[in-house]
Design a protein that fits this description.
Layout lengths: L2 H16 L5 E7 L3 H14 L4 E6 L4 E6 L7 E10 L2 E8 L8 H18 L21
Antiparallel strand pairs: 1-5, 2-3, 3-4, 4-5
Helix pairs in contact: 2-3
Length: 141
């Protein structure tokens, strides 16, 4: 056999393993309401420094965002929340998931971290346990 003929299948095999899986939907379930999960999703998109927000629809609980850079290329992903009987389902629609990138798992891990951070933060409208001491009323004559 000629070396060129042997090299062709090897090259095809190498290229086929580098081709990304296109347009996958990843589903994760949470035992909390979507109204609790949605702030963590928005916090992840706004504050992680990893995503460029394309759109956020609070009424639909959906967001589109991009991720990536010069080496791996920009990719557009979408997240949406669906209420289910046991809580909330987060669907992440990824445009790319390949050898180097795992957009859905990375996003879920960041949402989980944001959820933990938001749960640990005191409520903004919480009142202190004790009221400040006020001076006793002055006696009237």
């Amino acid at each position: 056999m000629k070396p060129a003929i042997l090299a062709m299948p090897v090259a095809l095999l190498m290229l086929s393993s580098a081709v990304p899986a296109i347009a996958k939907t990843h589903k994760d379930t949470y035992t909390i309401p979507c109204s609790t999960l949605w702030p963590a999703v928005k916090d992840t998109l706004r504050n992680s420094g990893k995503y460029g927000i394309i759109s956020i629809a609070n009424d639909e609980l959906t967001a589109s965002y991009n991720i990536g850079g010069n080496l791996t290329g920009k990719r557009v992903n979408t997240v949406l929340l669906n209420t289910i009987p046991t809580g909330c389902e987060m669907q992440i629609q990824t445009a790319y998931s390949g050898f180097v990138n795992n957009d859905a798992s990375d996003f879920k891990a960041r949402v989980d971290a944001s959820l933990a951070k938001l749960k640990a933060a005191p409520a903004a409208d919480a009142k202190p346990d004790t009221a400040p001491a006020s001076p006793p009323p002055s006696p009237k004559n």
